[in-house]
Design brief:
eight-stranded antiparallel sheet, globular, Protein Transport Mog1p, Chain A
């Protein structure tokens, strides 16, 4: 298992067993490493020794951490709002890879949950002309004591190919798995998007990715 470190960025906006990679947010520079624990020796005949004032303490956790299967390739995020950008390789028969994004804007988040459901719904149209928001399947659970609100949607993907690119996909038979993880560091927005067969083949990995935040 290897470890990758992701830097905190500050701007708004389917299954074989595999080894996993742990991706962790970097701790602040001042707490990046632990000094060795030390104690002051009491002079002969003195009272019991007291811990040294500089005795090291573990650095406080400042972000959620995620474990990612080796098959998912970490890319350089295109915009600061993206904490992680991962390529999920296509399965046989699909012509496109899937993409997994983790967005985090700090404690302020990106508005109420309904606003996020609307954003994800607008990334799809339906062959029968029905409203994608009405087709969005919602559920909720808890992972590590944190509330997780999940969404699932399929249809024709019309999401932008890149941030503010102006180019949009026009791909029938695509699927989205999404989750909003409520955390002490603010909400995290996780979206797996791509051809339906590839997304469904990675559904168990997606679930494990979410559950890894409990560790």
């Amino acid at each position: 298992m290897r470890r990758l470190t992701a830097l905190l960025l500050v701007v708004a906006c389917g299954c074989k067993e595999s080894q996993e990679v742990s991706i962790e947010a970097a701790a602040p520079e001042s707490a990046a490493s632990e000094a060795p624990t030390g104690r002051v020796e009491a002079p002969s005949g003195s009272a019991t020794a007291k811990p040294a004032e500089s005795e090291a303490r573990p650095a406080p956790k400042t972000e959620l951490t995620f474990r990612v299967p080796d098959e998912w390739e970490a890319l350089v995020p295109k915009v600061p709002l993206r904490k992680f950008e991962l390529r999920v390789p296509r399965v046989e028969g699909d012509t496109q890879d899937a993409e997994l994004l983790v967005l985090h804007r700090g404690p302020v988040g990106m508005g109420p949950l309904e606003a996020q459901w609307t954003r994800w719904s607008q990334q799809f149209t339906q062959p029968d002309g029905s409203n994608s928001r009405e087709r969005l399947k919602l559920s909720n659970s808890k992972i590590g004591g944190r509330a997780v609100n999940e969404a699932e949607l399929e249809g024709t993907c019309v999401a932008e190919k890149g941030p503010e690119s102006g180019e949009r996909w026009n791909e029938p038979g695509w699927k989205l798995l999404g989750a909003v993880i409520e955390s002490e560091f603010g909400p995290y927005y996780v979206r797996l998007l791509g051809p339906k067969a590839t997304v469904e083949a990675n559904a168990a990995r997606f679930r494990a990715f979410l559950e890894s935040t409990a560790q």
